[in-house]
Amino acid sequence: MNVLLVEDHRLVADAMRMMLEDIDADTDVTSCYSTQRALSIIDEGHRFDLVLTDLFMPGIDGLGLLAGLKNRRSRVPVVVITGHDDDRYIRAAMEHGAAGFIPKTLPGHEVIAGLRKVLAGGRCFPDRLLVHEPRNTSEAPPVPLDEDGEGDGRPGRKQLQVLQLMADGNSNKQISQIVGITEATVKYHTSQLFRLFGVRNRTSCVREAQQRGFIRSFEER
Length: 221
Prior knowledge:
CATH topology of the largest domain: Rossmann fold
CATH superfamily of the largest domain: Response regulator
CATH architecture of the largest domain: 3-Layer(aba) Sandwich
Distance between the termini: 34 Å
Radius of gyration: 18 Å
Largest sheet: 5 strands, parallel
């Protein structure tokens, strides 16, 4: 079994590597200490049976990794393992396509049980949240089918991705790594968004997009 482990604390990463060996003696763990490196490894063509990621890391966070894998049409299950057991974070992970969310405060045997469930094709989230599925993305404002959105007064699909990643605090370089486009293309989409909303900076752009209902703030997720 090949596992990609994304954890910026090396001591925690080493402990998790040892725990993973209890699941399968033949487990091969590739450790990354940043999301940027993890996405680079994926882009190099390496294949994994499971991805484990922390949620809060410098640079691109765990949600950014989920978005990057989704944009690359990756089907590998991703489990968020973090010390933050907050319903907002769990729902955000669910909406970004995570297969599981496991707090680091759980005993080791419960963590292993959760990972086994995911590897068997299931999901692993706190029971209190599985009663209510995350809001379907079809409830969001309708998105035009074109990529750039020019000519209809609405952002296109790529621009909506850039908008949400801007709202999440990602830099142009980080957005380019997550979406899988060049930094110059990100800047082009950003300039088009500024023109579309009649603004001059990222903060005003994000605020205007939220007011018009194109993207949601973290508190609304």
